[in-house]
Amino acid sequence: MVQKNNCSLETNIVRGSEYFEERTGAISTPVFQSASFRHPALGQSTGFDYSRGPNPTRQVLETTMALLEHGRYGLAFTSGMGALSALIKLFAPGDHFIVSEDLYGGTYRLFHDYYEPYGFTFSFVDTSDFSLIEAAARPETRVIFIETPSNPMMKITDIKRTADFIHKHGGFLVTDNTFLTPFFQNPLDLGADFVVHSGTKYLAGHNDTLSGFIVHSSDVHKEKLENIHMSEGAALAPFDAFLTLRGIKTLALRMRKHAENAVVIAPWLARHPAVEKVFWTGFQDHPSIEISQKQSRGHNGMISFYLNDERKVEPLLRRVKLILFAESLGGVESLITYPYVQTHAAIPDAMRRAAGVNERLIRLSVGIEDAQDLIADLDQALRD
């Protein structure tokens, strides 16, 4: 359990839940690269037995994430998909989920391909339109799962309104906070029951390790989630926990720089003759700007845009030099992705197109390089 301290968010990001390691005084959390731990005597434990269960390095990361997300409990997994797979096991076949239709393709694949056959049902709707959430609700609806901002169309769902709605129906709100991180948004404060992250992205921030998280405050679900975490074997390894902890220490600095770069690059793209439309949550004419300003403290470096001609996609992806054509997002290096055939390929074509993911859509994860260097690279790559 984490008790909130009196420090600011930025101090908590740097220092985490433990300022130093008690036994040695180590300022950097040690990597406890041990599978097993000695028992003092029969029936006694140090609290650590076998690293598929609690591990000291991972535990510091988990309590740090709980602190930053204003939750009581955190669990660290080998990936965001591992976190989601564990979370869904709190529910039962026959339960119905309302899910943001504009979401990461791997989440769709997990839900549709692997949990629907076991009797779970899913309705994928545009959750930025509250009327569609209301229309999708059924007596057996137990969960609303939202990405906000969404991936890749940057739609905003009203967290508080959605939480109030599902709570009246006796259900739970799960919010994927990967895109904004606890630096810019805290869904639990707005009524969400569970927050999930792909820690691979902004949290770790260096494109060098995978991780995933569940953060919550539920005493009812704590023990079961911990048991799922241990039993399925998707607990984050100690060294990956160390890398993620090290990345989190610079989260505030990085998120500011990502956002500062996006403030420059998004309007530049909007003016470019090869670009038809830009999707970024920081535009004052974003359809949900008021909700965004109400529930978050800023904007990240995620920008999507339509090229005006599908034939310009391949040259753009081939010509970029500083920006790297690769999947993933949220790292210090800028990455450019083609969602239609990469991150969202698992989603049926009709659903992709309905959500806005077509052959002309490009997703740009703006890194922390100099913004003018990134603009120069985009400009030469978009040149006819």
List its traits.
384 residues; Aspartate Aminotransferase, domain 2; 5-stranded mixed beta sheet; Aspartate Aminotransferase, domain 1; single chain; alpha/beta; 2 domains; 7-stranded mixed beta sheet
Overall structural domain count: 2
**What coarse outline follows from CA principal-axis ratios?**
globular
Detail the poorly predicted runs: none
Helix share, percent: 25-40%
Major β-sheet strand ordering: 1-7-6-5-4-2-3
Class based on secondary structure composition and strand pairing:
alpha/beta
Helical element count?
A: 14
- Judging by the overall fold, what is the CATH architecture of the largest domain? 3-Layer(aba) Sandwich
Mind describing the biggest β-sheet? Answer: 7 strands, mixed
Q: What's the total count of β strands?
A: 12
Instruction: Write down the CATH class of the largest domain.
Output: Alpha Beta
Q: Would you identify the CATH H-level superfamily of the largest domain?
A: Type I PLP-dependent aspartate aminotransferase-like (Major domain)
Strand % is: 15-25%
Looking at the structure, the CATH topology of the largest domain is Aspartate Aminotransferase, domain 2
Measure the end-to-end span: 57 Å
Overall mean pLDDT stands at 96
**Topology pattern, helix = H, strand = E:** HHEHEHEHEHEHEEHHHEHEHEEHEH
CA radius of gyration is 21 Å
Walkthrough of the structure:
The protein contains 14 helices and 12 strands. With 384 residues, it is an alpha/beta fold. The chain folds into 2 domains: 9-248, Type I PLP-dependent aspartate aminotransferase-like (Major domain) (Aspartate Aminotransferase, domain 2, 3-Layer(aba) Sandwich), CATH 3.40.640; 251-382, Aspartate Aminotransferase, domain 1 (Alpha-Beta Complex). It has a 7-stranded mixed β-sheet with strand order 1-7-6-5-4-2-3, sandwiched between helices. Strands 8-9-12-11-10 form a 5-stranded mixed β-sheet, with helices on one face. Helix 4 (105-115) links the parallel strand 2 and strand 3. The longest helix is centred in the last third of the chain and has 21 residues, at 251-271. The protein is globular, with a radius of gyration of 21 Å.
